[in-house]
């Protein structure tokens, strides 16, 4: 059975507003997270990702009240990340309406957090988010704190470790492509898909329909932000196009 490809809007939230930048900087406003969540749920998004992108760099808790208000508007799987440092916060977010927890900075600082979350809530709840920047041909380094801090970690080795600790899915962002609209880093996606046998979500670089199809030939889902936020493409258009490319998407 062929698994259907997923289209997943991403809400990068700071100060209670959705923002979008290029290469993780030059952020501009993209709207209200609750209203956008409602719209994407209605339009047929397969899932929704909500990332509080300054929680870790500001060393503060995630904005729980906004998560709750957003969760009330969506009836599709809802992933939440940003500033999650312990299983108590994971539990609070799941109670607030999240279906999955995305771990990034805290997982690098304390890899055992992946195992704890997976054992407590199930691997299907734990998404390992990885922000990677290319350092050499077929080599990428992991960055943390919203792309501010280089770690020296090899991205592909980190994906393998995350899977072995119990992550059920990978959210992989190319920092080099983020917001550029030049296409996803398909070399990175291909290498990641070969390194792990859990689903990989492509993130960073979509500029047109062809880019989305290209990424989905390597992985199981595509994360989208500015193309949707600024109404350049709709989820319906994307899914219709994928069908023409022999890439079955969920209705």
From TrEMBL:
Its EC number is 4.3.2.10. Coiled coil: none annotated. The active site is at residues 12, 131. One of its GO terms (molecular function) is lyase activity. GO terms for cellular component: cytoplasm. The keyword Zinc-finger does not apply. Keywords: Amino-acid biosynthesis, Cytoplasm, Histidine biosynthesis, Lyase. One of its GO terms (biological process) is L-histidine biosynthetic process. SUPFAM superfamilies: Ribulose-phoshate binding barrel (SSF51366). Pathway: Amino-acid biosynthesis; L-histidine biosynthesis; L-histidine from 5-phospho-alpha-D-ribose 1-diphosphate: step 5/9. Belongs to the HisA/HisF family. This is Imidazole glycerol phosphate synthase subunit HisF. It comes from Termititenax aidoneus. The lineage of its organism: Bacteria, Bacillati, Candidatus Margulisiibacteriota, Candidatus Termititenacia, Candidatus Termititenacales. The gene is hisF.
């Amino acid at each position: 059975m062929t698994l259907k490809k997923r289209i997943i809007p991403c809400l990068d939230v700071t100060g209670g507003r959705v923002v979008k930048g290029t290469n993780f900087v030059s952020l501009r406003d993209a709207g209200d997270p609750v209203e956008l969540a409602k719209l994407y749920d209605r339009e047929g998004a397969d899932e929704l990702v909500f990332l509080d992108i300054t929680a870790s760099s500001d060393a503060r808790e995630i904005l729980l009240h906004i998560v709750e208000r957003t969760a009330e508007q969506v009836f599709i799987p809802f992933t939440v990340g940003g500033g999650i440092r312990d299983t108590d916060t994971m539990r609070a977010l799941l109670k607030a309406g999240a279906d999955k927890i995305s771990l990034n900075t805290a997982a690098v600082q304390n890899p055992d957090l992946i195992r704890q979350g997976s054992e407590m809530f199930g691997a299907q709840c734990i998404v390992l988010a990885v922000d990677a920047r290319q350092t050499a041909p077929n080599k990428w380094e992991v960055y943390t704190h919203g792309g501010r801090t280089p770690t020296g970690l090899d991205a592909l080795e980190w994906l393998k470790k995350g899977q072995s600790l119990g992550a059920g899915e990978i959210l992989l962002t190319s920092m080099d492509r983020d917001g550029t609209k030049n296409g996803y880093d398909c070399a990175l996606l291909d290498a990641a898909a070969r390194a792990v046998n859990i689903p990989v979500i492509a993130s960073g670089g979509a500029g047109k329909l062809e880019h989305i199809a290209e990424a989905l030939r390597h992985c199981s889902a595509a994360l989208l932000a500015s193309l949707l936020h600024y109404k350049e493409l709709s989820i319906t258009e994307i899914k219709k196009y994928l069908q023409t490319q022999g890439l079955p998407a969920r209705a």
